[in-house]
Write a structure and sequence with these properties.
75% of the residues lie in helices and 0% in strands. It has 107 residues and is mainly alpha-helical. It has 5 helices and no strands.
């Protein structure tokens, strides 16, 4: 039989860890969007995204993943508005880029 107290403790610990990542990342990305820095980051990363066949809007996702971690990149990806839907190939390329570059400065 499952120990419900342990299950809820695990849920709380995992949620707390994710919130510690998600909330500051969302705030920083929103601030960067408001000051227009996201536009410049997109322009800087656009040649890379075009080279691998991704839309320019995805550049901020790759940049965030490089500087922080996968969870932050996924959070930013969920908030990015794309001009068209990603194909399966583009989603695979994005996932590969994110896995390859996550926390690059740390490593």
């Amino acid at each position: 039989m499952l120990d419900l107290k342990k299950v809820f403790k695990d849920i709380y610990e995992v949620s707390l860890t994710l919130f510690k990542i998600m909330i500051p990342t969302i705030i920083v990305v929103k601030i960067l969007q408001e000051f227009g820095i996201v536009y410049y980051l997109n322009n800087l990363m656009e040649p890379l995204t075009s080279l691998v066949g991704l839309p320019a809007e995805i550049a901020i996702v790759i940049t965030t993943t490089m500087l922080t971690n996968l969870y932050a990149g996924l959070i930013v990806f969920s908030g990015v508005t794309l001009s068209s839907d990603l194909t399966i190939a583009q989603a695979t390329i994005l996932a590969t880029c994110m896995l390859f570059t996550h926390a690059l400065p740390v490593e």
